[in-house]
Structure formats: structure tokens, C-alpha cells
Design goal:
single chain, 484 residues, alpha+beta, Cytochrome p450, four-stranded mixed β-sheet, 9 strands, 8% strand, monooxygenase activity, Cyt_P450, membrane
Length: 484
């Protein structure tokens, strides 16, 4: 179909009306290129799961950079399947259990800061700075096996605060010209810094055979030792990860997810990751995980401060669970905190960091029974924020109500209206890590400190201008007190 023709838009509009999907499907334009937004849950399932083989790829990334082009999020087709199938087993429960102690020990500085603020009269704290330090520490240790010193923080900051014009050039300027001037969206200096750290660590471990000792259980070691597994082992890994997800998948969905990685035609004989692929996943893991996790923690704590009854219920659950194990927190206790899970689930619904997901059609595709044809190369957007705030699925959507996700209520949620980590085979591979990191931090801080509204707490939160890939708010300040 001709995207820019008025008859085509009229045809789509009439199809939407006849299908009763007004408000859930509409056309957009990225510059002169058309796209389509699909917000109907049944059609989302078709795109993200059932017909995943047609929508395997995300929006193309224009780069030939030796590291950025190897990001798992940038890869397409068979190359994505190969890397994803190798990386997937690094996020199973046994691997996360090995990372648990790193996360747990990274909370000490955070608790010390809270203690100082709680000792002050009317003391308050900037949540973004508090949790930013924690998540940077966790990922620095897990992904790069190093402490987050000032040099590390400065280079990390460059990855997240580069000016908008860099992204604008990436979208609008032909790749051949960008390559000719050696342009990359992410600053070259920061990329070189992380490359130097990672290559040095890899070489050190290879020389001394330290990758085979029991001293390292970080993400870098997991990637160095990761290799292409058989289809049965991949299926077990996917099932293990799915069992810890927010939304339990049906048997047919699990089969489709497993087939997406195991039904592959060629891997060019490469069963392990090369040096650039390892470095790419470390940088991606860091750049994606740092800000999203710190913001999630900030939003969680903000919601608790404004909902003291929920905070007290959570505190009681945490204290009771920890006391049942002689005051010690271990990995197996975290899943037992059901209300904690509900708190995080509702926060992700209310303030999900990713506003919209995207997939690209690899061939012409008829969208369900709507009569709409999505042509090859077209970008399909899934409006996560709109779904999470739709009163049809979540009554009083702007209210913080963790009970939506407690047993009995969670099962009644309409499938594919809650997408905090995406869905289908190309969902967020680091979801389990992010959840564990978030839960440990909340367990630590809520067990000792109570958060309250302060004079500078903003109600409601104010968000930075649209046009950014992630939801970002302004300053989040709340008061801190010790539990009586």
C-alpha cells in the first residue's frame, strides 16, 4: 500500500472502525517514513509472539561501530538468535544466585547515606542520586568486575547524558557519511574507556586461568564461559527465566519462545562470543540497566512515601521474613516476599521506564482480521504507557494500588496489557537481574528506614520533555526517618 496516500489512510481508518478498534490503532510518521501503533492486546500477541518470525527485529540501528553493532538489541535475524541463545543461560536462577552477594554487599553505602539523613531533623534525600550510586556500583561489579570510582562514574555519565543532537544525526544522516567522520551515537571516549577495562580483564583472566576459579561470579565471567547450548538446554534456561517473570506464559507461548532460539539454520560455526561481542553485551548491560533500575527504585520509594499504609505492610513482610531466618537475608527468601513483588509490579505499571516498544516487519503482513496491511520494513509500535494507564484494564489507573498484583487479582489481568519487560522471544533478557537488584535494595532500606513526604516532594511528579526513549522525571526528594 502507498503509505503517503490519503486513500490508504482512509482505508485504515475505516478498517479500524469496522473492527471496533478506534483508539487502539493509528498511523504515525518518523520524518517521512510511516509507522503504525497497535494497542489491542490480541493483535499485540500476534505481533510479539505468534508471528514473531515476521517481527523478530527492532528498529534498525545505523552504525558499523565494532562494539555498538554487536549490541544484542542491535542484532537482527540469525545473528541475534545466535547471540541471544548464548547469553540467555547467563540469567538463570543459578547464575543470579551467584550474583546475589554482589548486590547485597553493594547496599552498604546506600544505607550509610540514609542513616545520616534520618539523623537530621526533617532530613530529606534525592532518590535519583541515592539509587544511582547503588545501581552503578552493582553493575560496575557485575559487568566489569570493578569499583565505580570517579573516573568510572564520569565515563558512565557520558553514556547517559550525551546531547540530543547526536541521536538526531543518527536518525537523519546517511550511514556512509556518519562512518566517514567516524561518528557514533555513544561518545567514543566513554566507549574506549569501557573497552580498555573489559579487554584488560579478559586478557588477565585468560593468562592466569582465573575464569575457572570460584572467586569470580560476575557477568563478565559468565559471558567469557558462555557457549552455544543444545536445544534442550536452551529450552530449560528459557523455562527457568520465564518461571520468574511477572506474567506466567501459556504453554504455546513458551513453545514459541523456545523455538525462536532453537529453530535456527546457521551459526557460522561460532559457539562462543568473541571479544567484541563480550564487550558489547557488558556495555549494553550497563547502559540499559543502570538508569532503568535506579529510576524504578526511585519511583518505588516515592510511591511508598505517599502511601504509608502500603509502606507499613511491606515493612512488616520484610521484617517477618528476615526474622524467620535469624536476621539473615539469603537468595531463597526474596521470592517469598509476595507484597514486595506487588509493590514493584504496580510501580512498573504506573511508571514503566520504557514508554513504547518497537518491532519491524520483515515481510508484508495482514494485521489480524482488520484488513490492514503492514508492509515490509514498517515500524510497529506497542504503546506500553497507554496500555498501563488504560482505565478499561486498570480502573483508577493513576492511583497506586499494589493489590492489583496480589494472588487472585493478577490472574484476572488481561494478557498483553501489562508489559514492563516486553513479551515474546525478544523481551528484556535482563529482567530477572533488574528485579533481583531492585528487591534487594528495597528490602535493605525499607527494613531500616521509613520514607515520608517532605516540603520539596513534588505531587505529582514532573517528567522531562517527551522525545526521549525512557521515562525520566525531575528531582525526586522525600523525607527519611527510622522506624520506631
Amino acid at each position: 500500500m502507498a503509505y503517503d496516500s490519503a486513500p490508504t489512510q482512509l482505508t485504515i481508518w475505516l478498517a479500524v472502525i469496522s473492527a471496533g478498534l478506534i483508539g487502539t490503532i493509528y498511523l504515525i510518521y518518523d520524518g517521512s517514513k510511516p509507522g503504525i501503533i497497535v494497542g489491542d492486546p490480541n493483535l499485540i500477541k500476534q505481533i510479539m509472539v505468534k508471528d514473531f518470525h515476521i517481527f523478530t527485529n527492532r528498529r534498525p540501528v545505523k552504525t558499523t561501530h565494532p562494539i555498538m553493532s554487536k549490541f544484542l538489541s542491535s542484532l537482527v535475524g540469525e545473528e541475534w538468535k545466535r547471540v541471544r541463545s548464548i547469553v540467555t543461560p547467563t540469567f538463570t536462577s543459578s547464575k543470579m544466585k551467584n550474583l546475589f552477594h554482589i548486590m547485597k554487599n553493594s547496599s552498604n553505602d546506600m544505607l550509610e547515606k540514609l542513616g545520616k539523613v534520618a539523623a537530621e531533623e526533617n532530613g530529606e534525600i534525592d532518590l535519583k542520586k541515592l539509587y544511582g550510586g547503588y545501581t552503578m556500583n552493582v553493575i560496575a561489579k557485575c559487568a566489569f568486575a570493578t569499583e565505580a570510582d570517579s573516573e568510572f562514574e564520569n565515563n558512565a555519565t557520558q553514556l547517559f547524558t550525551f546531547p540530543f543532537w547526536r541521536k538526531f544525526l543518527d536518525y537523519t544522516v546517511p550511514m556512509w557519511w556518519l562512518d566517514s567522520i567516524k561518528f557514533t551515537v555513544l561518545p567514543q571516549g566513554a566507549m574506549d574507556f569501557f573497552r580498555s577495562i573489559t579487554v584488560g580483564l579478559i586478557n588477565q583472566r585468560v593468562r592466569t586461568n582465573q575464569q575457572h576459579t570460584e572467586h569470580y561470579h560476575d557477568f563478565l565471567e559468565l559471558l567469557m564461559n558462555a557457549k552455544r547450548l543444545g536445544s534442550g538446554e536452551i529450552s530449560k534456561s528459557i523455562k527457568d527465566i520465564d518461571d520468574a517473570s511477572f506474567r506466567k506464559e501459556t504453554d504455546d507461548e513458551k513453545t514459541l519462545n523456545q523455538n525462536a532460539l532453537t529453530d535456527t539454520t546457521t551459526y557460522d560455526g561460532k559457539k562462543k562470543l568473541d571479544e567484541n561481542e563480550i564487550l558489547a553485551q557488558c556495555v549494553l548491560f550497563f547502559s540499559v540497566g543502570f538508569e532503568t533500575s535506579s529510576q524504578l527504585l526511585a519511583y518505588c520509594t516515592y510511591c511508598l512515601a505517599l502511601n504509608p499504609d502500603c509502606q507499613e505492610t511491606l515493612h512488616d513482610e520484610i521484617v517477618e521474613t528476615i526474622n524467620s531466618n535469624q536476621g539473615e537475608l539469603n537468595y531463597n527468601m526474596v521470592p517469598k516476599m509476595i507484597y514486595l513483588d506487588a509493590i514493584i509490579s504496580e510501580t512498573l505499571r504506573l511508571y514503566n521506564p520504557v514508554l513504547r516498544m518497537e518491532r519491524q516487519a520483515s515481510e508484508n503482513y495482514t494485521l489480524g482480521s482488520t484488513g490492514i496491511t503492514i508492509e515490509k520494513g514498517m515500524i510497529v509500535g506497542i504503546p506500553v504507557w497507554a496500555l498501563h494507564h488504560d482505565p478499561q484494564y486498570y480502573p483508577e489507573p493513576d492511583l497506586f494500588k499494589p493489590e492489583r498484583f496480589l494472588a487472585g487479582n493478577r490472574e484476572r489481568l488481561v494478557p498483553y496489557t501489562y508489559l514492563p519487560f516486553g513479551t515474546g522471544p525478544r523481551n528484556c533478557i535482563g529482567a530477572r537481574f533488574a528485579l533481583l537488584e531492585t528487591k534487594i535494595a528495597l528490602i535493605k532500606v525499607v527494613s531500616k528506614y521509613r520514607f515520608v513526604e517532605s516540603k520539596t516532594t513534588k505531587i505529582p511528579l514532573r517528567f522531562l520533555p517527551v522525545g526521549r526513549p525512557l521515562l525520566r522525571c525531575e528531582h525526586i526528594a522525600i523525607g527519611v526517618k527510622k522506624w520506631l
